[in-house]
Structures are given as C-alpha cells and as structure tokens.
Specification:
The complex is a heterodimer of chains A (170) and B (547). By secondary structure, chain A is mainly α. Chain A has two domains: 63 residues; 74 residues, no CATH class. Chain A is 62% helix and 0% strand. Chain A contains five helices and no strands. The radius of gyration of chain A is 24 Å and the shape is flat. Chain B has two domains: 340 residues, no CATH class; 57 residues, no CATH class. Chain B is built from 23 helices and two strands. A two-stranded antiparallel sheet of chain B has the order 1-2. In chain B, strand 1 and strand 2 form a beta hairpin. The radius of gyration of chain B is 22 Å and the shape is globular. Chain B starts with a helix and ends in a 7-residue tail after the last helix. The chains are: A mainly alpha (170), B mainly alpha (547). At the A-B interface, helix 1, helix 2, helix 3, helix 4 and helix 5 of A face helix 8, helix 9, helix 16, helix 17 and helix 18 of B.
Chain lengths: 170, 547
C-alpha cells in the first residue's frame, strides 16, 4: 500500500471541487432554512432559533471557499488507508452497490419478514458482495447470527426486534 | 480525603456480583470487538452501546467502563500485530510495536502494553478520583459564557489535530454541526432542517450518526478498495516478559502516565500529542536508542501508558464540564446522556452513586483487562484471521442491529445508509471523522450554553466575554491563526521535542505508507523554505492549504 494515493490527478481535483460545492450548497441550504423559520411566540431569550444555524451555514460557505482555493492550488485530501485497503486501484463501485442493495433489502424487509430473516439476508448478501462464494456455509452463519442476536436482544436484553413471519416459531 | 471515602462507596456499588459480572462481560466484548481490524475504540463503544440499553443505569455505565477499556486494549493489539492503528492515539504504539512483533517479540509487546495500560490506568483513575471533584467545584463557578468558550476551543482543537489539513477538519466540523442542528429547537419549539419529515423532529439519534460515520462508512470504504491478498499475521505465544523487559518498561510506564494525564485533562487535549511526546522522550532517555525503529520495548511501553492515562484524564473534562476531547469520549458523552444523565459540574452532587460507581468500575475494568487479556492474548490474535468477507458483512449486520434497536424504526436504517455514504465520501476526500462526531454531539450543548449566556446578558454580546472567556478566545485565535503567528516568532521558540515528534511520525509514515489515522501533510514545507513541515507547530498549523 503506497501513501501516494490516487491524489494529485486531474480527476480527483475535479471531484474534490465537488466536495467544496457540496459544502457550499449545504451551507446555503442551512442559512436559507434558518431565515425562513417563522417568528416564534414561545421563544425564550434574545437569540432565536435561527442564529446558530446561520453561523454554522456561514462556516460551511467560508470553508467551501477555502477548500476550493486549496484544491485549485493543488492541495488534495488524502484518502484514508488501512490494513485491508489497497488504494492503488479504482474504487470498486460494483461491490459498494451490492452492499447497499443488501442494506436496503434489510431496511425494507425488517418489518414485514422480521429481523431473523432480513438480518440473514443482509449478512448473506454482504458476504456475497464482498466475494464469498460459500453459499451454504454463509447461509448457515447468517441464520445463526440473526436468530441468535434476536434471542439475545429480545430475551436477554428486553429490547424488541420484529419477529415477522417467524412469529410462533421462535 | 473525602474523595477516597466516596470512592470506597463507589466500590460498594460496583462490586456487587451482578455489576462485577457485567464489568467483566464488558471487558471481554470490548476487547473482542475492538481487536477486529478496522474497528477502533469509538466504533466499539458505538456498536456495543445497544447491548447496555436494557440494563439499569448504574449497571449499564459499569458495563460500559469495561467496554471502554476493552476496546482500547483491543485497538492496541491490532496496531501491534497488524501495524494498523484503529485510532490516531495508537499510531505511535504501532511504530515500535509492530517492529517487535515482526522480530518475534509480539508477546512481549502485548504484555508491556497490557501491564503498562494497567499501571497507567490505575494511577490515572486515582488521579481522576482526586482531581475531578475539585474541578467540579471550580466548574460550578464557570458561567455559560465560559463553557461556550471552552467548547469553542474544543471544536477548534479537534480540527487542528497534529498533521492533518485544517480546512478539511473545519469542513468535517461544519458537517457535524449541521447534523446536530436537525430536529426541534428546544427553546423555541421550531423545527430546524427537518423538511417536514416527522422522523427527523427528534433529531438524528447519536448512535445512528456514530455507527453510520464509523462503522458503515468504514465498511463501504473498505469494500470499495478491498485488498484481496491474505494478510500475514504474527503468531503470538504466551506473553511473558523477561527481567530485562521489566526493567526497561517500568520507567516508561510511569513517565507515560505523567505525560498522558495532564494532556488528557485539558479540554483541548486528545491523545495524539502526548503519545508522540512520550515516544520521543523514551527515545531520548533510552539506553538503547539504536533499537528505536527496530522494535524497542520502551517505544511501546511509554506511548501505551500515555494513551491510557490520557484516556482517564479525558474523563475529567467529560464528567465535570461535559466536554469530550476524543472520538471515544464523544461517544461516551452520547451514551451517558442517553441514560438521561447530563454530565456537568453538578453531576458529582446529583448522581454521586453513579459517578463513583463509574470511577470504581474503571479500576475494576482495568484490572479485569490485565487478568483476562494477558492469558487470552493468543486467542485475540487469532481473531485477526477472521475472513474479511465475514468481518465486513458482520460490521454491517451489527450496525443495522444497533441502529434499529435504538429506536425500533426502519427509517433509521435508511438514515444509517445515508450517513454511511457521507462517511464514505469523507474518507475518500480526506475529511477527518473526529471533528464531525464532536460537532454532532457537542454542537447542541454549545448552542444551549451560548443562548443561556445571551439570555443572562439580555442579548448583549458583551455577556459572552469575561476575563476567563477572553483567555480562552485568545488561545482559539492563536490556534486558528498559527500559520500567521509563527512568522513573527523567533525560530527557537518552537519546542524542539515537538519538532522531533512530528518528524519522527512523518518518517515512520513514509516508511510504511501508513496513512490511516493521522494523515501527514505533504512535504510542501520543504520547499516553503522554513521547516514548516516538520515542526509540531507547523503540523498544528499548516494543515491549511497543503499547496
């Protein structure tokens, strides 16, 4: 892993200007939203609910400006490294998209199907996305984890997790 | 010796069989999760927090203390065995620790880290017990205006972490503050940035933010760049230290404690600077300076002790002022407030059982750490071999579990993914995560103090300045304007030790290409003429445009 990460290229420069743009837009959004807050009748104290958002929004806009200047002058944010990370290649968007799909599937299914099923789908899908091809072993691990964690939370910790279609079985 | 009596009472609370059991369980779980690669102490706490939800407050806090110490030790284990600091505080440990591991002395490195953490943790917790009540007494006098000033200092200090870009730090802080604004404003009842979404009215749960930024962001970011080659991991034997190891370790432990505690206790401290300082000090004082860079045991003993002492020191501002200085402390603050307790000067009066129970359980957690982790070290090392596909699938699995359990709402899961995407973006463009977390958690408190101060002064801005606050604002201004200020200072005035520390770190980075927690600025300083790049002042300051 080299620390000479994909920085310094034209492409990263352009996408990093996008970050400055994002920060600026976020700042403006925060300011506008604060200005649109209606007069409050129950407000206590001389400083209304809008003051701090305006300050934060301004901070964002100013920082966006400085960041744009920095990027324009050749500064690059350093992508984060790590033991499992290889920064030499391009981002693997396919894996990320598959992970996001597994994640969204869980979010959509947790209430209708219950955590024991949706959680298992999440784990199995994520393992598949990350390149595991032991379909059966993954499925067993996924089910053990999701059913186990359901029991732990519901019986051990008294927190409710949806049981869904397995109601009466677990 | 009032504090000691109270502390005894605290042990009475913490040593009931149930509480003791939870403390041990916390240490075990904390270490097991913390040792996993890519999971730092802050993430460990955020992931395990939902487990404490069903418990009664005191027991929960006690289990939490165990998780805290376990997570920190787990992080050091990873950095020694894999050269992968999970948090900037263990960057220094990784330098010598990993060299030791590579030369077959992994067990000794882990042992000196564990015993050093124990020694430092015990002394520092004792200091905490003695100092915190005094600080709390003083802090009662501190006005909202002063508290606001200190919080501002904490914000600025975390964005200027050793060696990273300050513009990007401030950007991360702004993002965090913005997330913290979402929800109903308490004093006016106005909805801010909720865009009519009812689920956002209560604000975004801090757990969702922390787990999203740390865990989901990390998993997605790693997945996009996953290394497909197997790692080589040093096997670990039974951790035993020879007589020579002991005699070379004990002084660094004590010196590390002395360096770490005060730095941790200052509201703008953090653990990076003291661990660097400890490393350089040990290198200077060592009888074997030639071993540094090849695996000197002092270079593990000192920084590890420092790290633990500064963590205990960090509890002083956390408990007495409600101001966190590290990501870990920020998540702790969120956890403590989630139990309905507000840290602050009055905490010692209003919740004595809880506070002293917590402090006592820090001792217990620390001891449990030593007792459990020395013999279990080979087992923890084996956890590092977990297949990466399962590791990151598991991180996502438990992130969802925690986020959902916090509020039983599937909306939170979508939010979690969105915040995870934000964390991905921040990692991609080198925006540090820590200022964002501090911003989310501390931002709302800071706003409250500000508005209270202005309420007292009836809206006059002069209400924000009194002598104490002015001193704090001057420090803030100095940190912000450091690159400008430095030009007017004589060359000598920059502390040489810090210079060396920054240089040391930079060197080790260029050796390993280790860019994880502390991103070292490019060598722009070199052609800028003066030694901006390798003075610590330099690295505090010119994170600013690295060009």
């Amino acid at each position: 892993m080299s620390s000479a990460a994909p920085g310094g290229t034209q492409e990263q420069g352009r996408s990093e200007l996008g970050v400055a743009l994002f920060l600026g837009a976020l700042g403006i959004l925060v300011i506008v939203q604060a200005l649109l807050l209606p007069e409050s009748r129950i407000a206590r104290g001389p400083v209304g609910p809008g003051a701090v958002p305006i300050a934060v929004g301004s901070l964002l806009v100013v920082v966006a400006g400085f960041l744009a200047v920095d990027v324009w002058r050749g500064g690059r944010g350093e992508p984060e490294g790590g033991e499992d990370i290889e920064l030499t290649g391009r981002s693997d968007w396919k894996t990320v998209a598959m992970l996001a799909a597994a994640f969204i599937a869980n979010a959509l299914l947790i209430e209708p199907l219950g955590w024991p099923i949706s959680g298992a789908i999440l784990f199995w899908g994520s393992a598949y996305a990350l390149g595991s091809r032991h379909y059966v072993r993954d499925a067993v691990i996924a089910l053990v984890l999701s059913v186990g964690s359901w029991y732990l939370f519901v019986l051990g910790l008294g927190t409710s997790l949806p049981v869904g279609i397995l109601k009466g079985i677990l | 010796m009032d504090a000691l009596t109270e502390l005894m009472g605290g042990f009475g609370t913490a040593l009931t069989p149930t509480n003791l059991l939870y403390a041990l369980l916390g240490v075990l779980l904390g270490t097991a999760i913390g040792v996993l690669p890519g999971i730092g102490p802050a993430m460990t706490i955020a992931l395990l927090l939902p487990l404490t939800r069903g418990l009664d407050v005191t027991t929960a806090i006690i289990m939490f203390a165990g998780i805290y110490y376990g997570g920190m030790y787990g992080g050091s284990t990873t950095s020694i065995l894999l050269n992968t600091p999970g948090e900037s505080a263990s960057v220094v440990t990784a330098i010598e620790g990993n060299k030791m591991a590579k030369s077959g002395r992994a067990a000794q490195a882990l042992a000196t880290a564990a015993i050093g953490s124990f020694v430092a943790g015990t002394i520092a917790t004792l200091l905490l017990a003695l100092v915190a009540p005094l600080v709390a007494d003083l802090a009662v006098e501190v006005s909202p205006a002063d508290t606001f000033a200190i919080m501002l200092l904490a914000f600025i200090a975390v964005t200027s972490v050793l060696g990273s870009s300050r513009v990007r730090g401030l950007a991360a802080l702004g993002i965090g503050l913005t997330i913290g604004l979402i929800g109903i404003d308490f004093t006016s009842g106005q909805q801010r940035l909720t865009f009519g979404v009812p689920e956002l009215a209560d604000g975004i749960d801090v757990i969702v933010v922390a787990v999203g930024l740390f865990a989901v962001g990390e998993a997605l970011w790693t997945a996009a760049h996953l290394r497909r080659r197997p790692l080589d991991i040093t096997p670990v034997g039974n951790p035993r230290m020879s007589r020579a190891d002991w005699s070379r370790s004990w002084k660094p432990w004590l010196r590390g404690t002395a360096i770490g505690f005060p730095f941790g206790a200052v509201p703008a401290g953090g653990a990076e600077i003291p661990t660097f300082l400890s490393y350089v000090t040990e290198k200077r004082l060592s009888k074997h300076p030639e071993e540094f860079g090849k695996g000197a045991i002092e270079g593990v003993a000192g920084p590890e002790a420092t790290n633990n002492a500064s963590a205990a020191g960090g509890l002083v501002p956390l408990l007495t002022l409600g101001i966190p200085t590290t990501a870990t402390a920020a998540v702790m603050l969120a956890a403590i407030t989630s139990y309905g307790i507000e840290p602050g000067p009055r905490l010692f009066e209003t919740e004595p059982v809880l506070v002293w129970g917590l402090i006592a359980s820090l001792f217990i957690g620390n001891t449990a750490l030593l007792v459990l982790n020395l013999p279990l070290a080979p087992l923890w090392a084996r956890l590092l071999r977990i297949p990466r596909t399962y590791l990151y699938a598991g991180i996502l699995f438990f992130s969802c579990l925690g986020a959902y359990a916090a509020d039983a709402s599937s909306f939170d899961l979508f939010l979690l993914l969105a915040i995870g995407a934000l964390g991905f973006m921040m990692r991609r463009f080198g925006l540090p995560i820590l200022p964002a977390i501090i911003g989310v958690i501390l931002g709302p408190f800071a706003e409250e103090e500000l508005r209270q101060a202005l309420q007292i002064s009836n809206g006059a801005l002069s209400g924000l300045v009194d002598p104490f606050a002015i001193v704090v604002y001057v420090i803030v201004a100095l940190i912000l304007l450091w690159p400008v200020v430095r030009r007017f200072l004589p060359r000598r005035s920059i502390v040489p030790v810090l210079t060396e520390a920054a240089h040391e770190i930079e060197e080790s980075h260029s050796h390993h290409g280790l860019t994880h927690a502390v991103s070292v600025e490019r060598h722009v300083g070199d052609h800028r003429g003066d030694r901006a790049g390798d003075s610590a002042g330099g690295s505090r300051g010119p994170g600013e445009p690295s060009g």
